[in-house]
Design goal:
Elements lengths: L1 H15 L9 H12 L14 H4 L24 H16 L5 H10 L1 H5 L10 H23 L14 H9 L9 H14 L8 H9 L20 H8 L22 H6 L3 E5 L8 E3 L2 E5 L1 E3 L3 H15 L4 H12 L3 H9 L3 E3 L4 H11 L12 H11 L2 H13 L3 H27 L1
Parallel strand pairs: 1-3, 4-5
Antiparallel strand pairs: 2-3
Length: 434
């Protein structure tokens, strides 16, 4: 981070040293003027539009439905009613505090320059920007508090009536393009805590966990003291999916792009499947012919959640652990029959419809992504391919599947084996007697 900031400063210095000379032709003068007014991208940027290639696969997964948060979708047609709702929330929010509206405006203004640098697009300084950030930030915190404590509600409140509205708002707040920097929420929340009339407001992390846990069950695993400084909500979602250990498994395997066989082929090679204990996605283990995978429930928001986390990994240059996991699961699923096997072994719960829909979801979610060097599953892929390529394991699996899969067949195989042995002994005795 320090090297990046130093490089940014060097570029900025170089740009400011460019001067327009009287002898410059109009084209040179125009270019120099543009260079003087340009600035390098901030190293603090962390809120992006989803890359075009992955966005075009499913644009709805990256586009807010009912509410805009931040500048990237601000002013979007159809969100006018929710913009009025933000004013209702601001009024209730201010009723919780002895601090004035002006104090909260100053909190946002003091963070304005830092806030603008968090967006990958150029955001101009303006009072409208400050107003938008203040309304969105207070809206989020007030929504969290209402959800946590169950009210208060006002007549015409859109957040909790109709019932589906809250789910839509929650989904919109999971989108990468619909984020506020977490430090803005912390600034507003800290000011609320210091001036709260009842002093019963939970920490911002606990409010966030409580609000998103109905859709992201792994939020409950988070220890507040173990969470690093967060950039925004998608950064938190990414963090709560990370493996228990960030080391490759095992260390001595080199990077490999080899795919693993699907569930059907693994089963044909003798691999058994079990649902692993625990809720960490990455706690996948293969030992003694048994592949253990933590349970995953696929719901209406699963695709949206993982698509936006993967988009964040693609844009932010961070370790692509979630993409690694989704690529692994994608390898396991070639057909709806593979999905049925995951369901049968209690590894997957289908909460969206048919097995065909699940198959399509996982096959499309990694499309047009750049995996890069992802070490976490190298050893697992190596072990599975080695096991499936073993002639002995395939022979044992065929024997078990075709000849020992029912009690009657087991008895028949034993009887045939005994008969074969007796015939062999009889033949040997006859030869010896001769």
């Amino acid at each position: 981070m320090g090297n990046s900031s130093a490089a940014d400063q060097d570029i900025k210095s170089a740009l400011t040293s460019i001067k327009i000379e009287p002898s410059d032709c109009p084209v040179s003068a125009s270019i120099k003027e543009m260079l003087q007014s340009s600035s390098p991208l901030s190293s603090d940027r962390c809120i992006y539009r989803a890359p075009v290639d992955i966005r075009k696969v499913n644009e709805e997964a990256y586009t807010p439905r009912v509410v805009s948060i931040g500048p990237l979708h601000h002013g979007r047609k159809g969100f006018e009613a929710m913009e009025k709702q933000k004013l209702f929330c601001l009024r209730t929010f201010l009723g919780r505090t002895s601090s004035s509206l002006e104090n909260y405006v100053q909190v946002v203004k003091s963070l304005e320059d830092r806030t603008r640098k968090c967006y990958a697009e150029t955001i101009e300084t303006s009072d409208k920007f400050t107003q938008m950030i203040l309304l969105d930030g207070c809206f989020i915190i007030e929504l969290f508090i209402r959800f946590c404590f169950g009210g208060p509600y006002e007549e015409g409140d859109l957040l909790f009536s109709p019932p589906y509205m809250l789910s839509n708002v929650r989904i919109d707040m999971m989108l990468l393009e619909n984020q506020l920097p977490f430090f803005v929420l912390e600034g507003l929340h800290n000011n609320l805590l210091s001036s709260n009339k009842q002093n019963k407001i939970p920490t911002l992390i606990n409010l966030t966990k409580t609000f998103f846990e109905p859709m992201i069950s792994r939020m409950k695993l988070l220890d507040e003291n173990g969470i690093p400084p967060l950039k925004h909500f998608v950064d938190l979602f990414w963090f709560c999916q990370l493996p228990t250990s960030l080391e490759a498994r095992p260390k001595d395997y080199e990077a490999t792009s080899n795919c693993i066989p699907c569930m059907t082929r693994l089963h044909q090679a003798g691999v058994e499947f079990e649902s692993a204990d625990g809720d960490r996605l990455f706690d996948i283990d293969f030992n003694n012919g048994t592949l253990k995978i933590p349970h995953i429930k696929v719901t209406d928001c699963t695709e949206i959640l993982f698509r936006n986390i993967i988009a964040y990994e693609q844009c932010n240059g961070t370790n692509r652990f979630v993409l690694s996991y989704m690529s692994f699961i994608n390898d396991l699923i070639d057909t709806p029959k593979d999905v049925d096997m995951l369901i049968h072994n209690n590894i997957l719960t289908n909460g969206i419809g048919s097995s065909k829909e699940i198959c399509s979801l996982f096959n499309a979610i990694c499309k047009d992504t750049e995996a890069g060097d992802i070490p976490h599953f190298h050893g697992l892929r190596h072990d599975l391919n080695k096991y499936c390529n073993s002639t002995l394991h395939r022979w044992k699996a065929t024997l078990k599947r075709d000849y020992l899969n029912t009690p009657c067949k087991v008895v028949s195989v034993i009887a045939a084996s005994v008969l074969l042995i007796l015939t062999f002994i009889q033949t040997v005795c006859a030869v010896l007697a001769a």
